[in-house]
Specification:
The protein has 77 residues and is mostly helical. The chain is built from three helices and no strands.
């Protein structure tokens, strides 16, 4: 039988992320998430009628969820 390398072989160590670059990105993403959730909570109506799907989208889909909410969820019904 031919020798096969293991599927999860230990490779070279992954490069470390620079905290000076990573910290602002994380803070911007967190601020966007909080802004969208607060805006959603204050609105009386949202497209689709229910707020919980928008909240789930904002929380689960990281950056794209809040952007989708800002573009589509804030429209007046």
């Amino acid at each position: 039988m031919p020798h096969r390398p293991p599927l999860l072989a230990a490779g070279p160590a992954s490069p470390h992320l620079n905290p000076a670059i990573l910290a602002p990105v994380v803070l911007i993403e967190l601020a966007l998430l909080v802004y969208c959730l607060v805006d959603l909570a204050r609105r009386r109506q949202v497209p689709g009628g229910r707020k919980w799907p928008w909240a789930l989208l904002i929380i689960v889909v990281s950056v794209l969820g809040p952007i989708a909410y800002l573009l589509l969820g804030r429209r007046e019904s």
